[in-house]
Structure formats: structure tokens, C-alpha cells
Amino acid sequence: MSEVFRAEDLQDGGVALKALTPPARLAVFGDPIAQSKSPVFQNAALKACGIETQYIRLHVTPDELEASLRALPAAGFLGVNLTYPHKTAALPVLDAIDPAAKVIGAVNTIAVEDGRLTGFNTDGAGFLRAIREEFSVDIRDLRVMVLGAGGGAGRAIATQCALEGCERLVLVNRSVEKATSLATDLAPYFRSDRLVGPSERLAAVPHDPAALRAELEHVDLIVNATSIGMKRSDPPLISQALLTPNLMVYDAVYAGGRTRLIEDALHAGARAANGLSMLLHQGALAFEIWFDRPAPLASMRSALEAV
Ligand code: NAP
After folding, report:
1. 193: pLDDT confidence band, cut at 50, 70 and 90?
2. I need a surface site. Which of 73, 119, 123, 300 has the fewest CB within 10 A?
3. Domain match, 99 and 134 both
């Protein structure tokens, strides 16, 4: 399962990949890539649907990205997922970009059809499905705080919240200028005649205790989209004293189990969930784009939970 193929395997019509049993016609590109869990649940989905195709990990460096994307049609590929560091770099190579992905400024899914490459972003929509599933709520009714709003995942999540018309959005980033710049991009989605009370509907603040304390009074859902939380030794993102029972906490980290933020939230009586559900749903949405049919979610979920 942890086999990794190389960018050169895609060249010259991808002969070696076509010769696999079943042939590889889907992949995830990244650098590094060995850690990706996507093949686990995408192959479970393909098997459950009886599709004679396999999904592989392909190690593609930034220098190899353009040639690898252009090689996909001749290699007989149906599509690919992109992970770090390719989600934004791929944009200029694509023939078409889905409108939501355009606003987010990044793609994580590409479909190949008639030799053309179309880019999508399923991270944002996968996040929406995850929130609905974990907390039985609709993002439109929520005041959302996104920690790490300046990063790739944070930007996708925050933009999706804006596109959905969430009640309020607080963009938090260590380098505050990235949050401020995103707030400028998203401001058009928050212009309305809605009565909003004392705190404005869109805010950008630095990731510091005073700013968090002030904003948390006006928030229902906290999302961690920083790269902090995967290691037990990571510093706390929010002081435990600021977490209250009314909050929902979604930690996009998908290492599985409980991060420190989740532990602290549960200890405070809040509801909390980890990023496995977002990982699952962004993958299910990609499957639906490639095959134009519902993804076999139960099979995908069991495969992911068994890793
Ligand atoms: P990224 O683009 O590198 O962004 C990292 C973010 O973390 C930036 O906003 C950065 O702030 C912030 N950050 C880093 N160190 C920090 C610290 N010590 N204190 C506060 N903020 C800090 O990474 P990414 O690709 O968006 O991924 C972020 C996380 O989301 C990762 O854990 C990843 O596994 C997860 N993710 C999950 C899913 C899913 O499906 N569940 C999908 C995608 C990503 P600065 O801008 O100031 O550097």
C-alpha cells in the first residue's frame, strides 16, 4: 500500500502504469507523498464499485509538476488529486477551473476529459459535509473562527464559509497580513443588509491570546487549520481557559485520535472532532467528480478507519 511511483513513470504514455493490475488511472501528486492516506480509501471505493482501476501515490516535485500534468491524457488517466506543494502551482497548467476553486485560488482535484484538464477544490466542500456530519449543523447558521486562515487549508475553509454565507467569519493567522489580505478578498460576500449586532461579520486578527479572547465571545465554531497539533509536543493553540461548553471545535489535523486542542475542548465540555471526516468527504467529492456517481462512503470510511 505504501508503494510510491515516480513522475517519470507517467511519461511516454505511462506504459508501466498501464501494465499494473488493475491499471493505474488515478493518483495523488505530492512532495513528499509516502504519507498520503488517499490511496487507502480511493482504492476501497474503486473496489466497492467494481471499477478496474487503481489509485496510486506519485512523487512529483515542483519541477516535474507541469510535465506530469500534461502527461495525464496520454497515460490514460481519469484524474488526480494534488497535495502539498502543488495546489496553487497547478493553476496555470489547467484548461478550466471550477468557479469555487478559482475564488479559493487552489485546486486539489483534477479531472481529465477529452485531453483537457479541469481543476476543482473539494477541501472546502468536504469541510462543509464534515461539519454537517460531526455536529448536525449548517455552516450558514454559525459564527466561525478559522485558525491558520492564511494557509492553504485555512483559505479553502474560510472561503467556503464565505461562499455559503456563514453568520460571521473570524480569520486568525500568526502572520496577520495574510488574514487581512484574505478578508479583503472575502469582503464582497459579507456585504448585506443583515442586522449583525455589535461585532462586524468579517474580522481578521493576529493569533495572540488577547485577540482570541476578544473574538471568542462571538464565535460558535473554532476550526484549526494551522499545521500545529499533529505532535503531542506542539504548543496549545488556544488557552484552555478560553474554551467554553457552548463551542464546537473542528481540528483539520487528520492524524487520527485526539489532538491537544480536541482534548482541551472536550475537557471544557465543548463538542470536538478531528479532520478525518474532512479527508473522507474531500475524497468522496473527488470520486464523484471523476465517475459522476455517488461515492461508496461506507466502504471508504471503513478503509480509512482501519489504517
Ligand atoms: P500551510 O499552507 O503550510 O499553512 C499552515 C498554517 O499554519 C499557516 O496559517 C501558518 O501561519 C500556521 N502556523 C504554522 N505554525 C504556527 C504556529 N506555531 N502558531 C500558529 N500558527 C501556525 O498548511 P496547510 O496545507 O494549509 O495544512 C494545515 C493543516 O491542515 C495541516 O495539519 C493539514 O494536515 C491539515 N489539512 C487537513 C485536511 C483534511 O482533509 N482534513 C486537508 C488539508 C489540510 P503563518 O501563515 O503565519 O505561517
Report:
1. low
2. 73
3. no
Q: Which of 37, 87, 102, 178 is catalytic?
A: 87
Q: Are residues 163 and 254 in the same domain?
A: yes
For 112-150, write each residue's pLDDT tens digit: 999 999 999 999 999 999 999 999 999 999 999 999 999
Q: What are phi and psi for residue 37, nearest 5 degrees?
A: -95, -5
Classify burial at 137, counting beta carbons within 10 Å of its beta carbon; exposed 0-12, middle 13-18, buried 19 or more. middle
- Is residue 87 part of the annotated active site? The answer reads yes
Testing ligand 1's pocket by substitution, the residue of 227, 260, 307 carrying the most ligand atoms inside 8 A of its CB is 227
Q: b/e map of 84-114 (b: 16 or more CB within 10 Å)?
A: eebbeebeebbeebbebbebbbbbbbbbbee
- Reported as a single tens digit per residue, the pLDDT across 8-64 is 999 999 999 999 999 999 999 999 999 999 999 999 999 999 999 999 999 999 999
Domain span holding position 227: 124-274
pLDDT at 196: 58
Is the pTM value of this prediction over 0.90? yes
For residue 124 and ligand 1, the question of a CB distance below 6 A is answered with: no
Q: Is 35 touching ligand 1 by the criterion CB < 6 Å?
A: no
The count of structural domains within the chain is 2
CA of 169 to the centre of ligand 1 (A): 18
